[in-house]
Amino acid sequence: MEFLLFVLVVVFVFEYINGFHDAANAIATVVSTKVLSPRQAVILAALFNLAGALSGEAVAKTVGAGLVDTAYVTTLTILCAMLGGIVWNLFTWWLGLPSSSSHALIGGLCGAALASAGNNWSVIKWSVEKTDPATGAIIRDGLFHKVIVPMISSPLAGLAGGFLFMTALLMLIANWRPARVNAVFGKLQIGSAAYMGWAHGFADAQKTMGVIALATYAATKAGDLENLPPGFGFLYNPTFEIHLWVKLSCAAVMAAGTWTGGWRIIRTLGQKLVALRPVHGFAAEAAGATILLVAGRWGMPVSTTHSITTAIMGVGLAKRRSSLHMPTVNRIVIAWVFTIPVTALLAYLLFQTFKAMGVE
Prior knowledge:
By secondary structure, the protein is mostly helical. It has helices at about 1-20, 25-30, 40-55, 60-65, 75-95, 100-115, 145-170, 180-220, 245-260, 265-270, 280-295, 305-320, 325-355; strands spanning about 130, 140. It has one domain (about 1-125, about 140-350). It contains 13 helices and two strands; from the N terminus they run ααααααββααααααα. The longest helix is centred in the middle third of the chain and has 44 residues, at about 180-220. The radius of gyration is 20 Å and the shape is elongated.
């Protein structure tokens, strides 16, 4: 049980880092447009992160049981997956790159599970089709449907959504005076920032909920939680459920991480990528958050980073094609491409190293 508790601490460290690493997703635009001060924006994002994290569990179930065969998952598997994600998140945060914590987690989980299964590639659920007993509809699960397809489609949707929304707003405000535009959208952007903060919590906190549920399920299945001491019965999870304590703790830890901010990435998104005013921030946040809402309802662990960053790019293109800072765009895209393979490799190597050291 002690090893499980240690692993859960590591999972919460990942969640905390996710909070400050991805805080920029919710507050970069509202800070850069000077609608809110950094402290006000962080408070707003933390509160709505908390609310969003408690709003569903479809994504948590996908991450916890829909991507890898749980029969091969052990507590060590979870530890290595989280460590791989933590290393990548800290590295990209240090560089100021808005990489995806979601994909870092997924890559780490796949790499660690592959090592745990002895290089048996079937441990990864590439594509699964099943029938919904209630409706008879075909449900498509697995890495391809829930991760790969959204990984490609959500940035495209963010780019298109930001462009179209901004284009529509530019037509609406064509005859408005600049002072009126800033006054109106300065108020509206507070709402869109809250919406983005909620969507961030809804999308990202659920992923860590799924990992904690998977860790407690694996420990229960392995018999590590037999004869639990008084007060620790909440860890017992024989049927893979997302318990209330998991939701509350993940929501609180992410909110705490968001509270610390993530100013390196905020500068990249809010200042280096494209110059923003309140109307642009409103359009980007509304488009990015809507993508996360729709994907979350379908149980797709879509990247918050991809959604908001491409929405900002789309807004920039609607302003004028030359408004995007392409060197920054190129650095961001390179980080996206390498996130899953690098974290998978890190987690795989960590598992093999711990196994060679006799850690089980």
